[in-house]
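PT: before anyone asks, these are the final sequences, not the draft ones from last week. 750 residues across everything. Please model them as a single complex and drop the result in this thread when it's through.
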Amino acid sequence: MIVAAWICLVAPLAAALLITLLGNSISRRVAGYVATASVLGSFAAAVVVLAKLWSEAPGDRSHASTAWEWLTAGSFHVGLRILVDPLSVFMMLIVSGVGFLIVAYSIGYMDGDNEERRYFAYMALFVFSMLLLVQAGNLVILLAGWGLVGLSSYLLIGFWHDRPPAVAAAKKAFIMNAIGDATMALAFFLLIQHRQSLNFPDAFAVGPGHGWLVNLVALGLLGGAIAKSAQIPLQTWLPDAMEGPTPVSALIHAATMVTAGVYLIVRTHAVFEQAPRVLELAAGLGAGTLLMAGLIALVQTDIKRVIAYSTMSQIGYMFLGAGLGAYGSAMFHLMTHAFFKALLFLAAGLVIHALAGEQDIRKMGGVGRLMPVTRITFLIGSLALVGVPPFSGFFSKDSIIAASLSRGWYGAILFTVALIGTFLTGLYAFRLYLIVFPGEPSPFVREHLMRDSHAAGMEGAHATGESAHEVHEHTGEGPFSMTAPVIVLAVLAVVGGWIQFAPLWHPVSDWLDPVAPPLAVPSNTQEALASLFAVLLGLAGIGVAWLIYGAKRLRVPKLAFSQRLLEHKFYFDEAYDAAFYRPAVWLAKGLGRWIEGPIIGGSIREITAAFREAGLDTSRIQTGLVRTYALAIAASLAVITIVFVAVR
Amino acid sequence: MRGPDIAWYLAVAAFLFATGALGVLLRRSPLIILLSLEIMLNGGNLALIAFSRLHGESSGQIFALAVMAVAAAEVVVGLGLIVAIAQKKLDLDVDKLSFLRG
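LR: through. Structure below.
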C-alpha cells in the first residue's frame, strides 16, 4: 500500500522530468499523453491506497514511510517521510482525479500552442507538488510541497510569458504566497525550538501552559493558509491569476492549490484547537472573504474572473467550516467544490476556446444555442455552486452553515453572513449564466461560431498546422477530449454530493473522523434550518438574477459609489500599492539619491580620481630618455657608495 | 711575479670605468653607448683580476670570465636591438627613442 502511495507521488514527477529531458524528440501530442497518463496512474494508485485503507480498522488507518534521512542538524532530523491516512488519501483522490480530467482537457485546449511540452511538464510538476503537499509526513516536506505548488503556479500563470499582464500576475501570485510561506516557516521554527520534531502528529502536542507559543504557531500557519487560499487580506493575487490558460485556472485556482489552506488547517487542527481565538479568526476571515468575493463577483465582466471570485467565496465557506471545527464538512465541500468549480472553469474554457480567447461577457450572449453541451454542463455547475438540491453544493455547503449555529452570538453573525453569501452566489452565478448562454447569439458570437458550421471542422484545424491556435476553425464545442472531461465533471457535480447527506448518512465525515474529530456536530434541526434558509436565499438570488438579466423586468440598480467600490475590488490593490509599493519606491529613490549617489558613488569616484592623479604625477619621472635613466642609476650608485663608505 | 702596485691597477680600472660611464651618459648613438658599456665592464674586470692577484686567489679571475660571458650576451642583445631599430629606419639616437615617456 505504501508502495502505491509512493507511485502516486512520483508518477507525475517522472512525467515532468521525462517531458523536459526528451524535449523535441517527442511530439507535442505525446507530451500531453505522457502527462495525462502519469496523472491517471497517480489516480489509480490513490484508488489502490483507498481500497487498502478501507479494509483496515478505523483506528489503524495511518501509515508513515520514510524514504531516507533528508536533513540533519544536530539532534534534529527530517526524513523524506510520507503519511498515508484518511485525510491524505481523500486529498490524493481529489488532486489526481480532478487533475487527470483537467490535464486530459488541456490536450485539446492547448492544441497548437507553441510551447505545449513546457505546459504539460509544468502541469505534471504541479500535480506532483500538490501530492507532495498532501502526502507529506512532516511539516518540512509539507512546506517543500507548499513552495513547489507556489512555484508551479507562478510558472503556469505566467505561461504566456510574452504577455506583460500574465507575467505581472505570476509575480503577484508568487509574492503574495511568499508572505504566507514566510509566516509558516516562522511557525515551524517555533515548533522546532519547542518540540524538536516536525513529524505528524507529535509536532502538534505542544502541551498546555504555552499559550503565546501556540497562538503564534497557529497564526503563522493561518498566514500560510490564507495566502495560499486567497482569503482576506492576501486575496488579491487570485483574480489576476486568471491570466494563465483556462485549464490552469481550473486545476490550480479552483480544484486543488487554493484548497491547500483548508487542508493545512484540518491537518494541523491540533494546534489550532489549542488556540481557539485563532481558529475563530480563520472562521471570521472566511466569512468576510465569502461576502466580499460574492459582492465583487457581481460587477466583474470577465467570465473567468467571475468564477475566480466565486472560488474565493467558496473557499471562504471552507475556512468558515474549518474554523468552526466542522472539518468533515469543510473537506466535503472542498471535494464537491473541486468538481463543480473545475466544471465551471472547463465549460468557460470551452466558450473562450470557441470564441478565440475572448473572455469579456459583454461581448457574449446566446452562446448556449450554438454550444448546447456547454450550456447544460455550465448550468449544472452553476446550480451546484448555488447549492440547489439535488446538486452537490447543497449537501456540502449547508452543513458548514449549520455548524455556525452552535457558536453563540459569533456563530449567529457567521450564520447571517454565510446566508447572505448564498444569496449573492445565486445572483452572480446566474448573472453570468444568463448573460452568456440563453437568448439570441450576439454579433460577436455569431461571427465566431456560425462560420464554423460550414468550416471543415477539426480536421481543417489540424491541416493548417501550427497556426491553428489563432484560427480555431473547429466545430463549436471543441474536440471530444475537451467535452468528455466536462461531461464527467458534470456527472460528478450532480452525484458527488450524494455521498454524504449529513442528517442521514455521512461517510466522508466518518472517514475523516480518526484524523480530525469535529468540534461541532450540528443537530438535525440545525441542518434543516440552515438548508431551508440557504436554499431559499440561493433561489432568491437566482430569481433576482433572472428578473434583471433573463426577463429584463428589473433594471440594474445604479449605485455609482458601490459600483466603483466593487469594480476596484474594495481598493485592496490600491491600498497595498499605497502602503507597501509606493513607500518602497520612495525609500529606494531616496536612498539612491541621498546615500548611494553622494556617499557610496562619491567615495568611489574620489578614490579613483586620487589614484589616477598620483599615477599621472609619478609617470612624469618616466621621461623615455635612456640617458636620464643612466644618469639616475649612476647618481644613485654614487650616493650608495658614498653612504657605504661614510657609514663604515 | 712582481709588477706595479695594486693602486696603479685600480687607478687604471677606475679611469676605464669613468670613461665608459661618461660615454654612456654623454653619447647619443646606441652603438657608442654599447661600446662604452663594454669599457665599463672591462674596468670592473681589471679591478677583479687585480684583487685576485693581490690575494693569490682564482675566484676573482673566474668572476671576470663570467662577466665577459655576460658582456658577450649583452652585446648580442644590444646589437640585435640596434639592427632592429635600423631596419625600422629610425634614427640611431637614444634621445629620439623616447616612446616610453610616461
